[in-house]
Design the sequence.
C-alpha cells in the first residue's frame, strides 16, 4: 500500500486513482492470502465506505487510515456470527451430543481429544463415540486418546454401523450420567454420496445438539467448498480450523466465516491437548539435554567443575533467542522450544573450544587467567566462522513463506538469535567463568602433587651358597 502524506485533508469525496490503486493492492493481497473472492469484494466495499469523505488527522498517514479501515472490515466479517462454546456447554441439556464432521486428514480425532481435555478441565465428564468404523486404525487412535484422558470409549468392530456406535454411546452416557458425548465420524470427501448419506443417518439416530465442521486451514479456498457441502448435507453449527500455526495466510478463517455464516469456535495448533502441556514437556526435554551435556563433558574432562564453564554459555544462547523472537513478535511456542534444545549443543560447542584449549595451556604451566586468555584468543576465529556458517544456514527458516512458514520462523529466528548471543556474549563470559570456577575448584580441591619418581631398584645379591656350589 502506498505511503500517504500526513496532512489533515479529505482522503476523497469520490473515487480517485489513488484509492483505486490502494484497493487493487488490497484485493491482490487478500486473494494471495486464500480469501474467497466474495469476501474480498465485501472487505473492499467496507474499506471504501470507511475511507470516502473521511479526514486524516495530522498525526496519522493515509496508510494508517487504510490499515484501520481494513481492520474494521475484517472484524465485521468475523463478527457476523459469534459463538461461546464453553457457555453453550454449561447451559445445554445432558447428555449433550456433539458430532464432528469433515474430510480425511483434517484432524477430527485429535480435535475431539482436545475438546474432551478442555471439558475435563471444566469439570464436565465425556464419552467418546468411535463412529469412524471406515478408516483403518481410527478405532485404535480414539481408544488411545480415551485411555490418556480417562474417557469411556464406546466402540464396535471395524466396518460396523457407525450410527449404532453413536446410539450406544448416547445410551451409555444416559445410563452413567455422563455430561457430553463426542461423536467421531469417518473422514469423507464432500463428493462421496454414500458416506455423506451415512453421516445423515448418524444425525437422524442420535440427534446431536451441535455439529462441528473440522477443516484444514491449509486447504485454502477448498475448505470453503467443503464447509458449504457439509452445511448443506447435515447443517453446521460451528467450525474448528486445524493446523492454523502452519498456515501463513489465514484466509480460510475469513472465507468460511463469511460464506456459510458460521462461527469459528476454535483454532487448533499442534497435536498436544494443551499448549501448556506441550510447553512443560519441552522444558523437561531442555533440562534433560543440559544434564546429558554436563555428564558427557564430565566424563571427557574427568572433572565435575570444568563442564560448568561450558554450560555457562547456554544461558546466553537462550537470552539471544528470546530477544530475537520478541523483536519479531513471535510466540514462545513448541517450535521455538525445539530450537532452544538445538541451542544447547550449539552454544556448548563454542564454549568447549575455549575451555579445552585453556585446559591444555594450564597443563603446560600457565596461570588460570593466562590460559583462559590464550584459549579465547586462539579459538576466536574458528568460533566466529562456524557460528556464521550455521547462522547463514538458518536464515532460510527465518524468512520462509508458504505452508508451514510460521513453524519455520519460530525455529529459525530462535536459532539465529541464540547463535548471535552465544557467540558475542559467550566469548567474553566463558573465559571469565572458567577462571572463577577453576580458582574455586583448585582452592577447595587442590590438585594432588605429582609423586616423586622412585629410585631404580638395585639388582638382588647373588646367593653365596649357590655361587660356591656352582664353583665346585
Sequence:
Amino acid at each position: 500500500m502506498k505511503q500517504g502524506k500526513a496532512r489533515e485533508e479529505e482522503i476523497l469525496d469520490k473515487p480517485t486513482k489513488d484509492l483505486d490503486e490502494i484497493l487493487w493492492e488490497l484485493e491482490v493481497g487478500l486473494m494471495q492470502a486464500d480469501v474467497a473472492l466474495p469476501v474480498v469484494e465485501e472487505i473492499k466495499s467496507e474499506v471504501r465506505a470507511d475511507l470516502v469523505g473521511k479526514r486524516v488527522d495530522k498525526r496519522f498517514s493515509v496508510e494508517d487510515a487504510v490499515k484501520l479501515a481494513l481492520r474494521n472490515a475484517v472484524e465485521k466479517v468475523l463478527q457476523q456470527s459469534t459463538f461461546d462454546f464453553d457457555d453453550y456447554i454449561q447451559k445445554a441439556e445432558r447428555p449433550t451430543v456433539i458430532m464432528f464432521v469433515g474430510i480425511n486428514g483434517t484432524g477430527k480425532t485429535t480435535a475431539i481429544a482436545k475438546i474432551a481435555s478442555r471439558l475435563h478441565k471444566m469439570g464436565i465428564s465425556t464419552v467418546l463415540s468411535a463412529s469412524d468404523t471406515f478408516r483403518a486404525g481410527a478405532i485404535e487412535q480414539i481408544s488411545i486418546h480415551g485411555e490418556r484422558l480417562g474417557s469411556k470409549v464406546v466402540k464396535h468392530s471395524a466396518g460396523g454401523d457407525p450410527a449404532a456406535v453413536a446410539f450406544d454411546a448416547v445410551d451409555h452416557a444416559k445410563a452413567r450420567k455422563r455430561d457430553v458425548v463426542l461423536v467421531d465420524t469417518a473422514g469423507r470427501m464432500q463428493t462421496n454420496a454414500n458416506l455423506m448419506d451415512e453421516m445423515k443417518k448418524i444425525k437422524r439416530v442420535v440427534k446431536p445438539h451441535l455439529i462441528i465442521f473440522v477443516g484444514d486451514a491449509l486447504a485454502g479456498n477448498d475448505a470453503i467448498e467443503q464447509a458449504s457441502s457439509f452445511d448443506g448435507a447435515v447443517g453446521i453449527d460451528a467450525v474448528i480450523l486445524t493446523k492454523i500455526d502452519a498456515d501463513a495466510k489465514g484466509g480460510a478463517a475469513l472465507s468460511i466465516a463469511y460464506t456459510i455464516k458460521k462461527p469459528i469456535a476454535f483454532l487448533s495448533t499442534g497435536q498436544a491437548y494443551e499448549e501448556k502441556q506441550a510447553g512443560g514437556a519441552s522444558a523437561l526435554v531442555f533440562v534433560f539435554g543440559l544434564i546429558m551435556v554436563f555428564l558427557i563433558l564430565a566424563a571427557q574432562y574427568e572433572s565435575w567443575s570444568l563442564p560448568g564453564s561450558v554450560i555457562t554459555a547456554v544461558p546466553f544462547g537462550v537470552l539471544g533467542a528470546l530477544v530475537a523472537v520478541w523483536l519479531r513478535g513471535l510466540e514462545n511456542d513448541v517450535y521455538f522450544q525445539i530450537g532452544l534444545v538445538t541451542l544447547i549443543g550449539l552454544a556448548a560447542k563454542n564454549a568447549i573450544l575455549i575451555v579445552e584449549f585453556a585446559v591444555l595451556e594450564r597443563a603446560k604451566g600457565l596461570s588460570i587467567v593466562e590460559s583462559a586468555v590464550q584459549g579465547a584468543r586462539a579459538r576466536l576465529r574458528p568460533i566466529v566462522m562456524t557460528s556464521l556458517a550455521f547462522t547463514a544456514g538458518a536464515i532460510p527458516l527465518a524468512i520462509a513463506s508458504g505452508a508451514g512458514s510460521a513453524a519455520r520462523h519460530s525455529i529459525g529466528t530462535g536459532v539465529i538469535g541464540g547463535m548471535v548471543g552465544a557467540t558475542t556474549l559467550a566469548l567474553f563470559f566463558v573465559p571469565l567463568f572458567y577462571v572463577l570456577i577453576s580458582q574455586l575448584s583448585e582452592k577447595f580441591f587442590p590438585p594432588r602433587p605429582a609423586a616423586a619418581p622412585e629410585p631404580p631398584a638395585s639388582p638382588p645379591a647373588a646367593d653365596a651358597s649357590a655361587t660356591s656350589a656352582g664353583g665346585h
About this structure: The two ends are 121 Å apart (CA to CA). DSSP finds 18 helices and seven strands in the chain. Residues 49 and 254 are 20 Å apart (CA to CA). The mean pLDDT is 77.
